[in-house]
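CHAIN AND CONFORMATION:

***
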Amino acid sequence: MTTATTTKLTAGTWNIDASHSTLGFSVRHLMVSKVRGRFTDFSGKLVINEDGTASAEAEIKVASVTTDNEQRDGHLRTADFFHAEEFPTATFKSTGFRVNGDDFVVDGDFTIHGVTKPVSLEVEFNGVNEGMGNGPVAGFEAKTTINRRDFGITIDMPLANGGAVVGDKINLVLEIEVAKA
């Protein structure tokens, strides 16, 4: 594995600015459209070491899920899906960074619903800005696709004519802004 260095970011801890970040997802609904949602309560950090290597971690409160539909959001919090009462957090912890052209792939362990699996995030680095008087900020967009069944979310809601109400593939799109601590 090639270890990427993040020479465009200065060494130190960069904390996720949740007010300027979005942790979003989409999933097929009735096999013909997509339902989109996001989580509103999350935190995390990116640590840049003096040698330019990096690590990242994040924690998501799954009960903060919103699809802008209260009934659906309530169902997503139940044992059928996230089981938020028993598994209140989802976590990501990087295991490595790889160069991908001008961008990165961040490999890591993603835990949701009590199950941990390796995932790879395709990360586009959007740059660094001096910020608005509180120190530098940096931006990233990360994408990956997971299969909900791999994480023990196995609810079946079959349709009479074949297919299912909820698809298996979940597309994750993360728009992240970090601020230097």
